Amino acid sequence: MHRTLELPDDVPTLAEDWKYLPAWQVESWPDQLTALTGGRTPEQKRQIREIYAHRLRLVSELHGMGVRLAAGTDTGTGYLVPGFALHDELALLVSAGLTPAEALHAATQDAARTLGLPDVGTVARGRAADLLVLDADPLRDIRNTRSIHGVVVDGRWIPPEERSHLLAAVEKSAAQTPPPEEGAAMKGCGCGGHP
After folding, report:
1. Hey, is 188 helix, strand or coil?
2. Which residue pairs from 135-143 have beta carbons closer than 8 angstroms and sit at least 24 positions apart in sequence?
3. Which of 73, 121, 154, 194 is the most buried (most CB within 10 A)?
4. What is the DSSP-derived secondary structure letter of residue 173?
5. pTM, rounded to two decimals
6. What span, in angstroms and rounded, lies between the C-alpha atoms of 187 and 96?
7. Helix or strand or coil: residue 108?
8. Is 126 left (phi over 0), alpha (psi -120 to 50) or beta?
9. Which residues does 165 contact at the CB level (< 8 Å), separation at least 6?
């Protein structure tokens, strides 16, 4: 979220994973971003870029001091697609100075601990785990987390073909999702716009 709001000039104009959201939602993002960031002067833009660089340094310093970092994303925020945005979050953690292994730890064991879930180490003691099987080593390059071969969910192997079918179904559903009625999108969002 901060990267989008603080580096709006770096926001992509198109991304492959946007097809998994309704077109009306994706098409609203540029106007939303302009409304939030459009009136900045060149000096304000420079200062905000410095704030973003400071955020990265702060994450690195917190990590270096032993503060637990939990990877996560703001679902519902423009330019972030649920699930897919976690890959970007991992890359941001690495750009802040974490190793790929530390970023993965932030998305697994530390995230579970932060949420009060059982420690990942308990998997070996009879607990089930969801697994992501990759075609490339994320310890060499964190962007390899996107090289997904298959997944294990609730103890069931989902091979590449089935995963492709599932993603196609999500894409189809997104394409068929109508926009909300006028004003309905804000109800109950917690943003203060509507009760």
Report:
1. coil
2. 138/90, 138/100, 138/104, 139/99, 139/100, 139/101, 139/104, 140/100, 141/100, 142/90, 142/91, 142/93, 142/94, 142/100, 142/103, 142/104, 143/87, 143/91
3. 73
4. H
5. 0.83
6. 36
7. coil
8. left
9. none
